[in-house]
Amino acid sequence: MKKDPHLIQQFLLQQQEQHLYRRPRLSESAQQPVMYINGKQLLTFCSNDYLGLANHPKLTEAFQTAAKKYGVGSGAAHLVNGHNIEHQLLEEEIATFTGRKRALLFSTGYMANLGTIAALAEKGETIFQDKLNHASLIDAGRLSDATMWRYPHNDHDNLAKRLARQEASSMIITDGVFSMDGDCAELSGLATLAKQHQCWLMVDDAHGFGVLGASGAGLTEAQDLTSDQVPILMATLGKAAGTAGAFIAGDNDLIEYLIQSARTYVFTTAMPPAIAAAGRMSLKLIQEESWRREQLQQNIKQFRQGAEASGLPLMPSNTAIQPIMVGSSRTALDCSEQLLARGILVTAIRPPTVPKNEARLRVTLSASHTALQIEQLLEALATLEVMQQVQ
Ligand SMILES: Cc1ncc(COP(=O)(O)O)c(C=O)c1O
């Protein structure tokens, strides 16, 4: 039966009353620290463009050159005739960069996660996920035929006990860098458990790829894990890489299996070839311009030192994601609005993205922020009335 229109209205009203209503903001700028949004010039601290590549002239040029040659749309799925030479080369270059045999492109990270998990997890098996994993991983677990168990955040003892009870364990799945908290998974412990229980370990490194590790290959590089220990590596290209899409990297059989059976790979149009061409340029810059990672680290240090000096409730994160926990959705919204009045955009993250009473301001930093801009943010945060109450 059709959903009762009154229920829809009631839901919308309830979202407003509970300070959970969301609206897209209208941007008329390229992605960069100072943007023109909803008709106002704002200094932004909410993008995932951690290396400042989304608006890099070399990416734009690579995109334009490929678009002139191949047009805009890919026209079909990879398995029909949409698999362009730019896709193929990007897959090969990602495989080399991540130290894996093969890589497979998906149009979004959400689709990479849905397709991969649904293809690998069978009925009668259990998949294990960190409670704070990204929504796309949780949805993938729900949509798969397997049973899902969510272990408390980074609690390997709890996971080990549960694994010991389970007969058919299929996958352990974790975010590399947790998207709303900014802390990292401890991968070697998970790899050991996966090996002991003969299950896959899948790492979603959406927020680590490009920014962590000496060459930018991500958390597996930073924590020195082999492809044997992390056989399924996923990352998105829409964050530090500054383009769009995502990949799964792994051994030959895994990739061949996904080509045959990941429905979000088979039954969808391939990403535009020009996006893949821009992605190839981005991979090159990630490797060649290590100063971007160094600058980002410097910015993180400056922000944390300043925030600690003002007594702001920081979370234990050393990554570009620096949330400030405020508790209620109302307070988070108040803080965000007060910052907005000062020309600074930091988004309030509220349930269901985070647990109830754990609403926060999610500050994200980029290599393209200047020291002065970070100082401006710190000054504005320190003077927030509501922020002084939560300290
Ligand atoms: C950890 C994580 N995984 C997956 C995704 C989904 O990636 P995409 O935006 O490419 O769909 C995101 C965010 O968007 C994310 O933060």
Compact overview of the structure:
The protein has helices at residues 5-17, 57-70, 78-82, 85-98, 109-120, 135-143, 156-165, 187-196, 219-222, 252-261, 263-266, 273-288, 291-309, 329-341, 371-382, 385-390, and strands at residues 34-37, 40-44, 102-106, 126-130, 147-151, 169-175, 200-204, 232-236, 246-250, 321-327, 344-345, 347-349, 359-364. It is of the alpha/beta class.
Structure in words:
By secondary structure, the protein is α/β, with parallel strands linked by helices. It has helices spanning 5-17, 57-70, 78-82, 85-98, 109-120, 135-143, 156-165, 187-196, 219-222, 252-261, 263-266, 273-288, 291-309, 329-341, 371-382, 385-390, and strands at residues 34-37, 40-44, 102-106, 126-130, 147-151, 169-175, 200-204, 232-236, 246-250, 321-327, 344-345, 347-349, 359-364. It is built from 16 helices and 13 strands. The protein starts with a helix and ends with a helix. The mean pLDDT is 95. It binds pyridoxal-5'-phosphate (PLP). Pyridoxal-5'-phosphate binds at residues 108-110, 113, 134, 136, 175, 179, 204, 206-207, 236, 238, 246.
- The parts where pLDDT drops under 50 for at least 5 residues are none
- Overall body shape: globular
Kindly report the average pLDDT value: 95
**Radius of gyration from the alpha-carbon trace, in angstroms:** 21 Å
Query: What proportion of the residues is helical, as a percent range?
Result: 40-55%
Order of helices and strands: HEEHHHEHEHEHEHEHEEHHHHEHEEEHH
User: What kind of sheet is the major sheet?
Assistant: 7 strands, mixed
Bound molecules: pyridoxal-5'-phosphate
Strand content: 15-25%
- Structural class comes to alpha/beta
According to DSSP, the number of beta strands is: 13
> What is the number of helices?
16
How far the N terminus sits from the C terminus, by CA atoms, comes to 49 Å
Strand order, main sheet: write it out.
3-9-8-7-6-4-5
